[in-house]
Design goal:
Layout lengths: L1 H6 L11 E4 L4 H12 L4 E4 L2 H12 L4 H8 L4 E3 L2 H9 L6 E2 L6 H10 L8 E8 L3 H9 L3 E11 L5 H11 L5 E4 L2 H13 L3 H8 L3 E4 L2 H9 L6 E2 L5 H14 L2
Parallel strand pairs: 2-3, 2-5, 3-4, 5-6, 7-8, 8-9
Antiparallel strand pairs: 1-6
């Protein structure tokens, strides 16, 4: 992100807002993995590539990785986008459904419907990615499925949150012109830090006078829910288009 911004002549201030933390002694995930191996699960929803790898590591910790892969090979695998599809390919597994861009839960549910996959009375394992996706789970449940979550990792604040505090201060003081978000969890974490310093309202008001850029629809939805005005959204949802559209918006502004 820094190199992309600098390539366009901008000055990047990096404020890490999250780190990935594996779930220790993941009994919930292990129970779900056992259900997949036992044949109780009829379908698997796979949301992220790194999440699949984390799930396999959880299985490997109990000597179950090969049995899990064999069981997955017998199931319809429903993937959200290219990254989980790539991980499946490395393990010689085929997906049944792959959501098109922008690869949100909405496209995944639509792809499942278009493929005429019947979920009534079926048990569907959902590999989660940091936080649960209630909209996706509700969508599967409304189609008659019983959802079994596989929570394989979670998001935490970085060990050093001072750069994030500094970014909040500089936004309030008018030193930052563009704010770029690449995940919904980033939005929640920066607001958490702003709450801790009693700067939430000041920061949100200041942010809404800047260019607020979102990586894609899921991130935009989180921003809208928290009271942000999204200026630009990347299409396709990647970092390069995000930087380009944000800088173009800033350049075109009167």
């Amino acid at each position: 992100m820094r190199s992309l911004i600098e390539r366009f002549g901008g000055c990047a201030m990096m404020a890490p807002s999250m780190q990935e933390v594996p779930v220790e002694e993941n009994l919930v995930a292990l129970d779900a993995i056992q259900q997949v191996i036992s044949g109780a699960v009829s379908h698997m929803v796979l949301l992220t590539g790194v999440g699949i790898e984390a799930m396999l590591k959880v299985a490997a910790s109990q000597g179950l990785e090969e049995r899990l892969l064999q069981s997955m090979g017998r199931l319809p695998l429903l993937v959200r986008g290219p990254k989980p599809a790539a991980v499946l390919n490395r393990h010689d597994l085929k997906f049944t459904v792959r959501a098109p861009e922008p690869n949100t839960w909405r496209e995944l549910l639509s792809a499942i419907d278009q493929a005429q996959i019947e979920l009534t009375g079926q048990i569907v394992a959902v590999q989660e990615y940091g936080i649960s996706n209630p909209e996706l789970c509700d969508g599967l449940t409304s189609r008659g499925a019983r959802v079994v979550p596989v929570p394989v990792y979670r998001w935490a604040l970085p060990d050093d949150v001072e750069p994030l505090r500094q970014a909040i201060r500089q936004t309030i003081e008018g030193e930052i012109e563009v704010l770029l978000f690449t995940s919904a969890q980033q939005v929640r974490h920066v607001l958490q830090i702003a709450d801790q310093t009693n700067q939430r309202d000041d920061w949100l008001n200041s942010a809404n006078r800047k260019v607020v850029g979102s990586i894609g629809p899921t991130c935009s939805q989180a921003l809208h829910e928290e009271g942000f005005v999204v200026s630009v959204e990347a299409s396709p949802p990647k970092m390069g288009p995000l930087v380009r559209v944000a800088i173009q918006h800033l350049t075109d502004a009167p």
